[in-house]
Amino acid sequence: MSGFKRVRRSGLAVATFTAFEADLLRSLAGQLIELLRNEEATQPTGDPLEQLLDFSGPTTEPEDPVLARLFPTAYLEDEEAASDFRRFTEATLRDGKASAAAAVIDALEEAGLGTEPEDGVFIDVELDDAAAMTWMRSFTDMRLAIATRLGIEDGDEEHWHDLPEEDPRSQVHAIYEWLGFLQETLVRSAA
């Protein structure tokens, strides 16, 4: 686990993953896409102008806690403004997050990740600045999803490090930390 490094000659951020690590990233990105696409994100309205302009996004906070965290309510004090803001922006935000996760999958597969990852195979990923930003955003979304599902909060690191290794939450928390490590090294390599 080496993380990302900047290659001076090419200017690219580069990381080498084992096939298992690359497949895990692909799986996490795929799960994020599925979550973003499964909950109904649009509600048709009767307004012909809105239908023409496609302002048909949802007007209420998502029921799934992860989606509620990824798409928080913008105006806590003004329910109508919050509803309008969500209707005009959430569908586009969902598409952007899903596209970023799909870009992670595409980059991994273009770098050689097959459908059946093999032991001893390494995947070299090279990202230009635009791709690095996309990956950073996707890492943020993946980490928020895991943190929400596990109930991770600021200052509770000791709790997570004290969990026995056989506790499945400990393993998922290790993935959360690994994503944080990857994101940190990618940020440093882009600086």
UniProtKB/TrEMBL annotation:
Domain of life: Bacteria
Pfam families: DUF2017
Matching InterPro entries: AosR
Protein name: Uncharacterized protein
Organism in which the protein naturally occurs: Nocardioides scoriae
